[in-house]
Amino acid sequence: MTTHSATLREEIEEMIAVGELKPGQHLDETELAARFGVSRTPVRETLIQLASMGLVVIRPRRGAIVAELGPQQLVEMFEVMSELEATCGRLAARRMTREEQQSLLVAHQACQDARDAQEPDVYYYKNELFHEAIYAGSHNQFLIEQTRNLYRRLRPYRRLQLRVRDRLHNSYHEHDGVVQAIVNGDGELAAHLLREHVMIQGQRFSDLMASLPQLRQGAA
């Protein structure tokens, strides 16, 4: 993949993650090509890449749309996500270097700053760096790749969760326990806390379902 096509993929992926391109929205190759100043060919190739990641659905003779997830799919994917992150946390508690622990603490502080400023979008990006630090600390490249792939697939929904009342405060509080467990080398506690942090159930599931219309609003 060329650098240019990788950049194009990342930019369209980001538009999906932030809700600029909404679930169910038709993706017009000509419009996207004009927007990014490229021909339709790299756009088409990018949409195929995004389809392989599950972010886009390509329909025969009808073009591509942003993928939509139903409630059952969301629950199942968050269930798998919680187990992947739990495994990352367990391994990170055993394998993180002192420098990696410091990077995790820096990312944790950045989340606190965003929480205090009540900036859910800023918190979302700092939260990504926080979780990425844990993935890297697992020192298992296959696990890291699988976890990142599913994280990307769930990005719009994880972002949406942070807009729910009190979620920023609760998310940071949950991070705090994870950080302490990892720094103390308690892999089982880190795994347990991350599993609970990521899994959506009960009230969190209800809140996410109630928020989904915001994500889909305006979709073509």
UniProtKB/TrEMBL annotation:
Alphabetized SUPFAM superfamilies for the sequence: GntR ligand-binding domain-like, Winged helix' DNA-binding domain
Record has Transcription as a keyword: yes
Keyword presence, Nucleotide-binding: no
InterPro entries the record matches: GntR_C, TF_FadR/GntR_C, Tscrpt_reg_HTH_GntR, WH-like_DNA-bd_sf, WH_DNA-bd_sf
Record-annotated membrane-spanning stretches: none
Annotated HTH gntR-type domain residues: 2-69
MF annotations from Gene Ontology: DNA binding; DNA-binding transcription factor activity
Keywords: DNA-binding, Transcription, Transcription regulation
Name assigned to this protein: FCD domain-containing protein
Organism in which the protein naturally occurs: Rugamonas aquatica
Source species taxonomy: Bacteria, Pseudomonadati, Pseudomonadota, Betaproteobacteria, Burkholderiales
